[in-house]
Amino acid sequence: MPAVVLVGAQWGDEGKGKATDLLGSRVDYVVKFNGGNNAGHTVVIGDEKYALHLLPSGILSPGVVPVIANGVVVDIDVLFEELDALIARGVDVSRLLVSGSAHVIAGYHRTIDKVTERFLGKRRIGTTGRGIGPAYADKINRVGIRMWDLFDEKILAEKVEGALDQKNHLLVKVYNRRAITVEETVEELLQHAERLKPMVTDTSLVLNRALDEGKTLLFEAGQATMLDVDHGTYPFVTSSSATAGGAVTGSGIGPTRVTGVIGVVKAYTTRVGEGPFPTELFDQWGEYLQKTGGEFGVTTGRARRCGWYDSVITRYASRVNGLTDLVLTKLDVLTGIEKIPVCVAYDVDGVRYDEMPTDQTAFHHAKPIYEELDGWWEDISNARAFADLPVNAQRYVRALEEMSGARISAIGVGPARDATIQVHDLLG
């Protein structure tokens, strides 16, 4: 049975929540395998709009078991804020499972995240300040706090003491902040422990048993390929594995169990935060895409940087993820543009690059080489079959498919839940 991984194929905000929701009625489990509450997914159901940050999008699909797996870092306050907000709107959240091996974001992680960014000044990474990076750093440094630790106060206090030993020197002597006590941190972490306990389990075991029983699993990435800590535009990346390989390490299933990898791309490109962005627009077209596409961060509210479609990074994402399918979103935003540029290669100091340069300096100096495609004027928001699209919109999609290294199996033509054209079966 399918174990399908869903990843962003650009810098994030591609519409992964919509793609997950599209498949939600056909899967048994939706698993978030990386990241934390530093990215948001917007799902529109009828007249209702849901903004999710930490929870898997599958929590909105009746009958689906949503799972926060071991590769995620969890801010417990945010977790219960989101759950309570959904409960208030009548959403059943009782099926949620959380990995006991998932690491916990403590208050000191958020503090260090914010003061470090300020300290870096113009060299800042552009983090959300939510403690994600410091929590992952503690995980790698083996001084992290895991979900299991919350249910043994003695062990928790010992681990918090070990984590704060070095951090307080940093906060006091480098950043001129007050020291954080073990007691206040333990109290903060324990306040939701009893409510959390029934949700926490060995999710790796649960997921492998589900596959053995013939269940269908969808693994949902936070962030996106170009923000992956190994394969993204380092150092302007997140602190976890947002590519398909992260689904394996971040959930505890074996690589041979993955049956497909779906990449999500916008019909143009956006980016939030710092870092190079070859097709970024600083003219009226950048403003047009931002306003027409509603390009403001779900989690941060920050305006997204906007640019034309970049087939070079999509080819790269196709390669490093092993994409079997693409979901193309927000095609409707391009309606009314007479000529639509598409980046087909880069120029780096006079040298043409058809594939993405992984050298940081080369990518920083990359200039887009464009081909222009004819646009369309017709409203496409009611199209539900590929043949319903104007001829030029069809040609645009086919051109992107040819350039991008994977077949385009679904096309988003509006924000509504049903505003999607399905070309191929994403679970087939």
TrEMBL record:
Alphabetical list of Pfam families matching this protein: Adenylsucc_synt (PF00709)
Keywords carried by this UniProt record: Cytoplasm, GTP-binding, Ligase, Magnesium, Metal-binding, Nucleotide-binding, Purine biosynthesis
Family annotation (InterPro entries): Adenylosuccin_syn_GTP-bd, Adenylosuccin_syn_Lys_AS, Adenylosuccinate_synth_dom1, Adenylosuccinate_synth_dom2, Adenylosuccinate_synth_dom3, Adenylosuccinate_synthetase, P-loop_NTPase
Entry note: cofactor: Binds 1 Mg(2+) ion per subunit.
Residues bound to IMP: D13, E14, G15, K16, N38, A39, G40, H41, T128, R142, Q223, T238, R302
SUPFAM superfamilies (alphabetical): P-loop containing nucleoside triphosphate hydrolases
Cofactor(s) annotated in UniProt: Mg(2+)
E.C. code: 6.3.4.4
Positions of GTP binding: 12-18, 40-42, 304, 330-332, 412-414
CDD domains per the UniProt record, alphabetical: AdSS
Active-site residues, record numbering mapped to chain: D13 (proton acceptor), H41 (proton donor), K139
Subcellular localization(s) per the UniProt record: Cytoplasm
Catalysed reactions, semicolon-separated: IMP + L-aspartate + GTP = N(6)-(1,2-dicarboxyethyl)-AMP + GDP + phosphate + 2 H(+)
Binding annotation for substrate: V298, T299, T300, G301, R302, A303, R304
Organism superkingdom: Bacteria
Pathway involvement of the protein, from the record: Purine metabolism; AMP biosynthesis via de novo pathway; AMP from IMP: step 1/2
Amino acids binding Mg(2+): D13, G40
EC class name: ligase
Purpose of the protein: Plays an important role in the de novo pathway of purine nucleotide biosynthesis. Catalyzes the first committed step in the biosynthesis of AMP from IMP.
Assembly and interaction partners: Homodimer.
Family statement drawn from the similarity comment of this UniProt entry: Belongs to the adenylosuccinate synthetase family.
Record's protein name: Adenylosuccinate synthetase
The organism of origin for this protein: Luteimicrobium album
Classification lineage: Bacteria, Bacillati, Actinomycetota, Actinomycetes, Micrococcales
